[in-house]
């Protein structure tokens, strides 16, 4: 395998074992699959198959005081310190209801009746309440007790004998339940200390109680008197009566006696025949090692699980012990709380077990499959460090605060036996190292010691009769401060140590002679490790760096910088090409030595990560820290490479399929594949072809997309919508989705809000553009009504842009007023009404033109194209600031303007159509000039171009009351008079010239609109308004 293939790139969390039991009580489900545990402000649900936490009931920072699982396993009730009761559905853990208990103190104990209908709760305020959780109300509130309740139970035959029993302090109280009331029947006094447990026998004839006063009392329920007091000589927190169909060790079935399994404060299980008052069986050893503290209760709870056929015990150190009912052999043990994890190593054949050193005097050996735990006692103080033998995986060593180091051998059953001890240091032994034939230790006394270790390792389990005491062969004062780490090289010739004095030192393993000092760290050194391949050493320091040192000249070859806090542990992987390190911030980092770069960072711990263990094949890594969490990591580098290759092959196949579909013009299938491949550009091309060929299929295509694909498609639409040429495709997609998807479905899309914010502004822009185009197309109809002011035109030449339109070809202009005839009064009124309608349809702007200009240009055609081009900045021309055809270059991001600029608004549209001057030519070279004369003020400055909204036709009815008149340069008198009398038109500065019946209207950009028509010389000349 090449070196490149060995490099790791990623690790994934395979399992995480954090604290799940910190209270006193647990509940086992009827199927024996799960365990419910009190854990601070939550309830942990643990799988009994692999020991992993499968769920939690979170109680919002409110301390859990008690839990109760119904007999039918349908619901779980959790009591909180705030006196609230919460009912959850099992196994979904959904909250059914939360209600006040009306206890004035925290609920300490709860219990169900056999029908899973009634719940009894006892509290620290000496009150007991009965709850009907089906009808959702409190049935009874029981009074008469005094003290904190330690146990409450229902009678086995509640329908025949409706009684409840509760133990408060050292007294047992009995209540009889009645409809709407209750009666306090008796107070059973016999215990001299707190009663911890109550249980009714199978025949429902006796009540058995135990307490901290070291006695068990049997009460006869018929007479409510004590039948037997059994001294057990130890405080008892709980007991289990022999269940039907099971026989305790030393007991007999069907002999009529009452047998009870008792585990007292000594931790030794015993079976008592309580009705006879004698002990029939006792275990040879305690189920756990007693603590060094006085007054600690070892066992908090003892219960029975029929599905597991096991006795379940909870201990003071938050462990859960499972023992077979018939033999009381421990077959499983779970550690609910590890406290601070200081070190961890893989041991056993195939690295089947994990040894963990926690903030306790016991070693915890976990089975890597079931994660059941064995607690191993050996040290008398906290265990600080662990080390595995390099060639024998079942041999490992531990060092402790008790100034000693122990050598262990792993047994087949998952426990371990001590085979050797090394005692000689004067202070705590902080680190230990194993090699072939010897062991080295380093202590807070600043000394390192070498111990001979040979025959103890070669011995087998059966040959061990006692613990060998090792002798130190060499001792050397190594550092000026505490020694934090020690390790032995692969060839066992060198020993390295790291200390708080900021140095690391290299020693000869034969005689512990000093070979070299490695200086360079600015703070203390926490860890040292030899490379498994090269002659280099890695050191981790509190200065947040990792340094690589060459052993030939003890120089610093490289420094790895990336941690922001102290680096606590490191380990070589990938045949010495990479390093795994942990820091005091809980981060796990993967480094490549050659590039000196951190290629991956993993964050699963919330506090200092003290422990790191790598399996021999480097497929698994375990980290642990002060957050009491063990994280099992799995190397997924090869899996990710395989998945990447498979994905590449799949993409290539789908790419080929997409190409084939596009070639065959199967747009519907091609569009779906393009969206699935996340290819926006190809999806756009397919969408264009789809809308051109078969737009009715779009709805069916979009209805078949998944939610994630719809979200991606909306993102495409938002991107396409930013460009005018792609807006059709984007708007079609949005239109179909808004019509076919419910608002709730759109809200479920992750980025719907952001997509909508991106769509709205550009959609409004496209709406304005289309509205402007619609208005510009409607101007033709308006132009036809305005042209009716002119004469009879037979040949009307359309401008190039209107050549194909038939609208203007159907316009017919009526003949001008007949020469020499008088307008009748009725005709005048009709014409006036027509002028009023025309006036109302034209915008209210006034066109002003210099009279002198009009006179100078009368009789000749005016070409204003150049002038308009030169006077674009004139205030009469408003180009408009909106350019809808703007696009952005994909590479540079610069705005690119199109040569065809549609108007963005009505003002911009009007600004593109300019009436310069209207000239009417007559065949007899006679012209009539109409101009506006202002009697009060001078004419405004010259203007060459005018927009539509600046035109207003002032209709003169009869006589011009404002002093406006029609002035005739040349022409026949009758025609001019009739023009004045009939129409009274004054275009306010528009100059009309009659010459050869030709009308020329010139617009900006030098486009000329010509309208030709034959007119008789006797017809009056009319002005008209030309628009496009």
TrEMBL record:
Q: Which residues form the U3 small nucleolar RNA-associated protein 13 C-terminal domain?
A: 655-785
Q: Where does it live in the cell?
A: Nucleus, Nucleolus
Q: Which GO terms describe its biological process?
A: endonucleolytic cleavage in 5'-ETS of tricistronic rRNA transcript (SSU-rRNA, 5.8S rRNA, LSU-rRNA); endonucleolytic cleavage to generate mature 5'-end of SSU-rRNA from (SSU-rRNA, 5.8S rRNA, LSU-rRNA)
Q: Which SUPFAM superfamilies is this protein grouped with?
A: WD40 repeat-like (SSF50978)
| One GO location term (cellular component) | small-subunit processome
Looking up Gene3D superfamilies in the UniProt record yields:
YVTN repeat-like/Quinoprotein amine dehydrogenase
Question: Where does each WD repeat begin and end?
Answer: 100-141, 188-223, 376-411, 476-508, 518-559, 560-601, 602-634
Keywords (alphabetical) are: Nucleus, Repeat, WD repeat
Q: Where is the composition biased (Basic and acidic residues)?
A: 954-979
Pfam family membership, one: WD40
In this chain, composition skew of type Acidic residues spans 828-837, 847-862, 869-890
The residue stretches assigned to a coiled coil in this entry are none
Region annotation (Disordered) ranges: 818-910, 954-982
Q: Does the keyword Lipoprotein apply?
A: no
What is the name attached to this protein's record?
A: U3 small nucleolar RNA-associated protein 13 C-terminal domain-containing protein
Q: Which organism is it from?
A: Cherax quadricarinatus (Australian red claw crayfish)
């Amino acid at each position: 395998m090449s070196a490149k293939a060995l490099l790791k790139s990623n690790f994934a969390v395979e399992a995480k074992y954090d604290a799940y039991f910190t209270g006193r009580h647990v509940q086992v489900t009827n199927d024996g699959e799960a365990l419910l545990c009190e854990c601070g402000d939550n309830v942990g649900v643990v799988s009994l198959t692999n020991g992993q936490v499968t769920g939690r009931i979170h109680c919002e920072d409110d301390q859990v005081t008690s839990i109760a699982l119904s007999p039918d396993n349908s619901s779980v009730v959790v009591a909180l310190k705030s006196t609230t009761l919460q009912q959850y559905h099992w196994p979904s853990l959904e909250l059914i209801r939360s209600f006040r208990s009306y206890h004035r103190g925290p609920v300490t104990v709860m219990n169900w009746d056999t029908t899973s209908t009634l719940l009894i709760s006892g509290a620290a305020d000496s009150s007991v309440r009965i709850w009907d959780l089906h009808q959702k109300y409190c049935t009874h509130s029981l009074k008469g007790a005094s003290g904190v309740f330690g146990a409450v139970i229902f009678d086995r035959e509640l329908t025949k004998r409706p009684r409840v029993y509760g133990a408060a302090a050292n007294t047992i109280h009995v209540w009889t339940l009645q409809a709407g009331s209750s009666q306090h029947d008796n107070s059973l006094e016999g215990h001299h200390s707190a009663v911890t447990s109550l249980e009714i026998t199978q025949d429902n004839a006796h009540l058995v109680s135990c307490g901290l006063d070291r006695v068990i009392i049997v009460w006869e329920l018929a007479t409510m008197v004590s039948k037997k007091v059994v001294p057990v000589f130890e405080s008892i927190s709980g007991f289990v009566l022999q269940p039907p169909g099971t026989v305790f060790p030393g007991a007999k079935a069907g002999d009529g006696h009452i047998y009870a399994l008792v585990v007292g404060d000594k931790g030794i299980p015993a079976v008592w025949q309580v009705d006879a008052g004698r002990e029939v069986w006792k275990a040879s050893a305690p189920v756990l090692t007693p603590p060094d503290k006085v007054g600690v209760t070892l066992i908090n709870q003892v219960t029975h699980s029929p599905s597991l056929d096991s006795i379940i015990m909870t201990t003071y150190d938050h462990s859960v012990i499972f023992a077979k009912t018939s033999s009381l052999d421990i077959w499983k043990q779970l550690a609910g709380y590890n406290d601070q994890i200081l070190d961890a190593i893989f041991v056993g054949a195939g690295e089947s077990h994990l040894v963990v050193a926690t903030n306790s005097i016991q070693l915890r050996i976990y089975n890597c499959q079931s994660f059941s735990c064995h607690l191993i006692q050996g040290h008398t103080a906290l265990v600080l460090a662990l080390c595995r033998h390099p060639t024998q995986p079942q041999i490992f060593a531990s060092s402790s605060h008790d100034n000693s180091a122990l050598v262990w051998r792993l047994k087949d059953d998952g426990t371990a036996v001590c085979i050797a001890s090394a005692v000689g240091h004067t202070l705590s032994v902080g680190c230990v190292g194993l090699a072939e034939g010897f062991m080295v230790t380093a202590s807070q006394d600043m000394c390192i010691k070498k111990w001979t270790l040979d025959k103890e390792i070669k011995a087998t389990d059966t040959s061990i009769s006692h613990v060998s005491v090792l002798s130190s062969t060499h001792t050397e004062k190594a550092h000026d401060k505490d020694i934090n780490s020690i390790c032995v090289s692969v060839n066992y010739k060198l020993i390295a140590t790291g200390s708080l004095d900021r140095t690391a030192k290299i020693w000869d393993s034969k005689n512990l002679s000093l070979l070299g000092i490695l200086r360079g760290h600015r703070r203390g050194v926490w860890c040292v490790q030899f490379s498994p391949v090269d002659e280099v050493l890695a050191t981790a320091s509190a200065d947040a760096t990792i340094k690589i040192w060459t052993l030939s000249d003890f120089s610093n070859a490289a420094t790895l910088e990336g941690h922001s806090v102290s680096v606590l542990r490191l380990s070589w992987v990938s045949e010495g090409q990479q390093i795994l390190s942990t820091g005091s911030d809980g981060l796990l980092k993967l480094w490549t030595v050659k590039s000196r770069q951190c290629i991956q960072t993993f964050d699963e711990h919330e506090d200092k990560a003290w422990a790191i263990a790598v399996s021999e094949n480097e497929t698994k890594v375990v980290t642990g820290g002060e957050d009491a969490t063990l994280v099992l990591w799995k190397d997924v580098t090869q899996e990710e490479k395989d998945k990447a290759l498979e994905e590449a092959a799949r993409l290539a196949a789908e790419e080929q399929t997409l190409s084939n579909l596009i070639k065959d013009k199967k747009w519907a299938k091609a569009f779906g594949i393009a969206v699935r491949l996340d290819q926006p550009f190809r999806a756009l091309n397919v969408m264009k072809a789809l809308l051109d060929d078969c737009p009715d299929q779009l709805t069916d295509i979009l209805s078949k997309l998944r939610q994630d694909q719809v979200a991606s498609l909306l993102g495409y639409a938002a991107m396409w919508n930013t460009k005018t040429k792609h807006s059709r495709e984007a708007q079609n997609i949005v239109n179909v989705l808004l019509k076919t998807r419910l608002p709730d479905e759109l809200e479920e899309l992750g980025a719907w809000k952001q997509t909508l914010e991106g769509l709205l502004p550009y959609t409004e822009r496209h709406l304005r553009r289309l509205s402007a185009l619609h208005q510009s197309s409607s101007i033709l109809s308006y132009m036809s009504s305005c042209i009716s002011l002119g004469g009879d035109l037979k040949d009307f030449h359309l401008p190039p842009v209107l050549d194909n339109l038939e609208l203007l070809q159907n316009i017919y202009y009526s003949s001008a007023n007949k020469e020499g005839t008088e307008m009748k009064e009725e005709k005048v009124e009709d014409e006036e009404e027509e002028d009023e309608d025309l006036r109302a349809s034209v915008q209210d702007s006034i066109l002003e033109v210099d009279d002198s200009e009009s006179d100078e240009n009368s009789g000749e055609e005016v070409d204003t194209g150049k002038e308009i081009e030169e006077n674009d900045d004139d205030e009469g021309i408003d180009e408009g600031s909106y350019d809808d055809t703007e696009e952005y270059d994909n590479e540079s991001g610069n705005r690119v303007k199109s040569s065809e600029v549609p108007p963005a608004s009505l003002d911009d549209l009007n600004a593109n159509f300019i009436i310069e001057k209207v000239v009417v030519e007559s065949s007899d070279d006679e012209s009539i000039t109409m101009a506006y004369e202002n009697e009060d003020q001078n004419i405004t400055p010259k203007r060459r171009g005018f927009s539509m909204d600046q035109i207003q036709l002032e209709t003169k009815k009869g006589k011009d009351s404002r002093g406006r008149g029609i002035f005739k340069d040349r022409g026949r008198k009758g025609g001019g008079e009739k023009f004045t009398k009939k129409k009274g038109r004054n275009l306010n500065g528009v100059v009309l010239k009659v010459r050869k019946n030709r009308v020329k209207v010139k617009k900006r950009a030098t486009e000329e609109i010509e309208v030709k028509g034959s007119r008789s010389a006797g017809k009056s000349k009319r002005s008209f308004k030309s628009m496009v």
